[in-house]
Amino acid sequence: MWGLIITVFLVLYGVMCYYIGRKGWNTLGKSASCFNRTLYLVVFFLLVLPFPVAELGEDVLPASIAPWFIIWGGYSMVAVLYVFLLLLTIDLLRLIDKWVNFVPAVIKEHPKTPLTLGVVVVILVLGTVAYGGWNARNSVITEYHVTVDKDAGPLQQLQIAMISDIHYGPIIDTERLNRLIEMIHEIKPDIVVLAGDITDGSLPQREARKLAEVLAQIQVPYGTFAVPGNHDRDLRDDNSALMRYLKEARIHVLKDNYVSVRDSFYLIGRDDPNRHSVPARMELKDLIKGIDSSKPLILLDHQPVDLKEAEANGIDLQLSGHTHSGQIFPANLITGLVYELDWGLLKKGTYHLIVSSGYGTWGPPLRIGNQPEVVSIKMTFQ
Fold first, then answer.
1. pLDDT at 277
2. Does pTM surpass 0.85?
3. Which terminal Cβ of the chain has fewer Cβ within 10 Å, N or C?
């Protein structure tokens, strides 16, 4: 299935590249000098080739250069997308102008208009991509306040730090994780939860150890808990090196399991719904059998799905990630259609859902139209 998605995307990418290349050649290349035509072709291929090379050659590129190709390919892919959208918009405006005639003749007939438009497109795209790279590296703390009408014993308030979608790997390294630890300490939480996609895939043993050593710096009164995400391949195997190192770091991974925390509330962790191994993900009603539902119930589920099931089973607060809030505009328009909530807080009766845009990035190391975040939740019990 994933191979089919990649194939379709590469075909669409090829169509965008052809459209950009033809428009650019007709505007800038045909009448230019031999040197300028050569320069145009070099710049064009440096723009469009890195992404497919990184995508198709990830397993054969030398380890020393593969991460650089992934980063370069991510930047160039987004640049291609925005150049395509801007050129398409210009062509649509030209088409509308044929009917409505709203563009002044002095602009349409000026010989330098095509070049000027090209320069404007390049400046807009470069500025947007540069901003996206900066934005992806500058996380914020997003605060929520949730009130639950349940007795938590002596506990009247609970301060939660929630982090999702770190995607530790070639792009998100230990330097970025050190900033994450600082932000968690700024929140001063009672409990820390990692809502899936801690990694960007399987990790070599050395990297698994480095990740666990950084996460071990999280020292909070009620502990640190995690659930698997769709990218957390090493969390599917209880005997993996990462699971062993996380256990040593006192990071508790909940896969279709729950814990009673200080006899005040329950923390319930679901396995990721994309997991196709046996046994399959448990039904929530079966998972919470034996739980005292008069106490607050907090559910960790990587993807913001099965909301009606959570609401029907008395969940007070569900914490999810996965969506990245689209990560790169206009993908947020798609996630907004796919999920009932792709970012923020949703309240239905006594049920609350908080979806994080995530801390890291997947694919292009850019964020445009949203911000990476660490979520701070003050939960009050009545």
1. 55
2. yes
3. N
Residue pair 54/26 in contact by the 8 Å Cβ criterion: no
User: For residues 163, 318, 242 and 53, what is the CA-based torsion angle, rounded to 10 degrees?
Assistant: -70
Q: What is the DSSP letter of 280?
A: P
**Residue 211 burial by Cβ neighbours in a 10 Å radius (0-12, 13-18, 19+):** buried
Looking from the CA of 237 toward its CB, the CA atoms found within 13 Å total: 11
Q: Do 87 and 114 contact (CB within 8 A), yes or no?
A: no
- CA-to-CA separations, 346 to 145, 255, 341, in angstroms, rounded: 12, 24, 7
DSSP conformation class of 317: E
pLDDT digits (tens, 9 = 90+) for 330-369: 999 999 999 999 999 999 999 999 999 999 999 899 999 9
Angle between helices 66-100 and 2-24 (to 10 degrees): 60
**Nearest CA among 74, 20, 67 for reference residue 50:** 74
Q: Does domain 142-381 have CATH number 3.30.200.20?
A: no
3-state helix vs strand vs coil in the chain, percent to 5: 45, 20, 40
Centroid of chain to Cα 377: 20
Question: Any idea how long the chain is?
Answer: 382
User: What are the tokens at 256?
Assistant: 């279709």
Taking 50 as the pLDDT cut, the residues of the chain under it are none
Residue 320: strand, helix, or coil: strand
Q: pLDDT tens digits for 228-256?
A: 999 999 999 899 999 999 999 999 999 99
Question: Residue 72: what are its φ and ψ, rounded to 5°?
Answer: -60, -45
101: left (phi over 0), alpha (psi -120 to 50) or beta: left
Q: How far is CA 88 from CA 82, 113, 132, 291, in A?
A: 10, 16, 21, 56
